[in-house]
Design goal:
mainly alpha; about 65% helix; about 0% strand; globular
């Protein structure tokens, strides 16, 4: 009884207003998804990032990098170094897979490379900064 009385006191919104709010929310969500996917290089769009993080820890990649370059191992992730593109990064992870006989599947190699791109290389953000804006 109380709920019915409360409902009658609230102003009713026209059906078109509810649809307009729903449409605006849908468009905003689609735009956010589009922007997020634009910031990821195409080669890594469908990569499984949690799997990549798990595999990096499982195969102790950081420990190997520490042995190779010293310090905390992050010096191996120099964007100015040999790796200049997402494809080259994936190729380097594949080389580690082959040399160390890790027997990773191609999607696992891609997942690891996607995590490295996100955490260390950030090719997409560098490409956006390097691209000059078009005059209007």
């Amino acid at each position: 009884m109380m709920a019915a009385a409360m409902r009658s006191k609230l102003p009713r919104r026209p059906r078109w207003a509810v649809c307009a709010v729903w449409m605006a929310a849908s468009l905003a969500c689609a735009a956010a998804t589009s922007l997020a996917s634009e910031s990821v290089p195409e080669i890594f769009r469908d990569a499984d990032l949690p799997l990549g993080s798990k595999l990096l820890a499982e195969h102790r990649c950081a420990e190997c990098h520490i042995r190779r370059v010293g310090g905390d191992g992050s010096a191996i992730y120099r964007p100015q170094g040999r790796i200049h593109s997402p494809g080259a990064l994936r190729g380097m992870v594949e080389m580690c897979n082959t040399e160390l006989k890790l027997q990773l599947f191609p999607e696992e190699v891609t997942a690891i490379a996607a995590v490295l791109e996100r955490d260390h290389y950030r090719f997409a953000s560098r490409e956006r900064r390097a691209t000059p804006t078009q005059p209007r």
